[in-house]
């Protein structure tokens, strides 16, 4: 899909939105013009939405050559989220709004309506749902009751047990397919994820692996699209480090809303990884909780609708009331790399292959070996 410069540079080619919507967003400087993300070329300019929900890459040596897929390019680099590249150069044109917190009841009503509208507006044709049993994926699944559910994990993994319990509570136990992960799956899949995403660090690989395996199985079963709950933790305050940011060294901000904004800043990098992994597995991701209407609503939430009395994602859980069973709505969930046991088993395989924990980045060394590459230390990458 690389653009080799042979076609008319004014030809519009946008992934995720119409050229007219992108033109209007550029003219108005509107970062949230009512889409679920976009990237591509319009009127000779390359553009990427403010949250980087659709990836776009340029070749470092030939910056006029670009693609939605980095594997098309000899030396790809990402067009930063919220940027445009045209005859005048490359620059940021959109940034996330930073509104004052809205009045509590109005903010909650707006967020609830936005979540309901976005999840119920998803077209269920050729769609499966990545379902881990947490509130994020449960809300997405409730919006598309006709779509089958998929979860991946090793035997005994938390996510598999949670998905089974949640699916049963929702009356959809028969809709759930469990993709049982094996060591052989990790060994064959790691090189594919590295090739597709360009990511080699253990955290990125471990996060992408279960997504890839779910998508691979859904694609084999004939589904072209996979609905995911991505964005919920970042938008609604789902990370532990948001609870008490003034006392958490991982966060620079000292308020809940400030910490939430910091986590949102990580979305472009995360979403690039996830989109590329899912596309490599044969499906197109659908992320209703990242639609502009949900983003705008979440940005206006006061801090006590993000975190209250240690409970995270307060507004999202409130929006899920009456939509999913209370046990699912209020349940805590582990991060995917831990809830599926993928991180644990990558560590086990690395040690079995001679990469002991006393070695710096022992899992990273194992990943390089699986890919047939020389190991490069993180600081030198």
Automatic annotation (TrEMBL):
Question: Which terms in the Gene Ontology molecular function aspect does this entry carry?
Answer: ATP binding
One Pfam family assigned to this protein is Asn_synthase
Organism equals Halobaculum lipolyticum
User: CDD domains given for it?
Assistant: Asn_synthase_B_C
Task: Identify the stretch(es) annotated as Disordered.
Answer: 1-39
The record's listing under InterPro entries reads: Asn_synthase, Asn_Synthetase, Rossmann-like_a/b/a_fold
Claim: Nucleotide-binding is one of the keywords in the record: yes
Protein's name according to its UniProt entry = Asparagine synthase C-terminal domain-containing protein
Q: Which UniProt keywords apply?
A: ATP-binding, Nucleotide-binding
Q: Where is the Asparagine synthetase domain?
A: 117-245, 261-352
**Organism classification, top ranks?**
Archaea, Methanobacteriati, Methanobacteriota, Stenosarchaea group, Halobacteria
Superkingdom of the source? Archaea
């Amino acid at each position: 899909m690389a653009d080799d410069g042979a076609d008319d540079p004014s030809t519009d080619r946008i992934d995720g939105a119409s050229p007219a919507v992108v033109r209007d967003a550029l003219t108005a400087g509107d970062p949230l013009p009512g889409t679920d993300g976009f990237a591509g070329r319009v009127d000779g300019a390359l553009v990427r939405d403010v949250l980087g929900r659709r990836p776009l890459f340029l070749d470092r040596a030939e910056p006029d050559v670009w693609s939605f897929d980095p594997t098309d390019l000899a030396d790809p680099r990402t067009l930063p989220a919220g940027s445009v590249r045209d005859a005048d150069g490359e620059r940021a044109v959109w940034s996330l709004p930073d509104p004052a917190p809205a009045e509590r009841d109005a903010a909650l009503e707006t967020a609830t309506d936005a979540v309901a509208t976005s999840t119920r507006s998803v077209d269920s044709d050729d769609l499966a749902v990545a379902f881990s049993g947490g509130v994020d994926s449960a809300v997405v699944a409730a919006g598309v009751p006709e779509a089958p559910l998929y979860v991946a994990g090793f035997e005994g993994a938390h996510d598999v047990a949670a998905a089974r319990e949640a699916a049963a509570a929702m009356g959809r136990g028969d809709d759930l397919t469990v993709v049982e992960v094996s060591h052989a799956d990790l060994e064959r899949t790691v090189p594919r994820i590295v090739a597709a995403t360009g990511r080699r660090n253990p955290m990125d690989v471990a996060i992408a692996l279960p997504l890839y395996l779910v998508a691979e199985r859904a694609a084999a079963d004939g589904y072209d699209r996979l609905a995911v709950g991505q964005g919920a933790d970042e938008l609604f305050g789902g990370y532990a480090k948001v609870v008490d940011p003034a006392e958490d060294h991982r966060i620079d901000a000292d308020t809940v809303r400030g910490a939430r904004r910091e986590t949102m800043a990580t979305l472009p990098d995360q979403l690039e990884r996830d989109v590329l992994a899912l596309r490599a597995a044969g499906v197109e991701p659908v992320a209703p909780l990242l639609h502009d209407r949900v983003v705008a609503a979440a940005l206006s939430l006061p801090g006590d609708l993000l975190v209250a009395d240690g409970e995270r994602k307060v507004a999202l859980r409130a929006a899920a009331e009456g939509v999913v069973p209370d046990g699912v709505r209020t349940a805590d969930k582990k991060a995917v790399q831990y809830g599926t046991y993928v991180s644990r088993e990558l560590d086990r395989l690395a040690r079995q292959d001679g990469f002991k924990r006393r070695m710096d980045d022992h899992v990273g060394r194992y990943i390089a070996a699986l890919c047939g590459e020389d190991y490069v230390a993180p600081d030198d990458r």
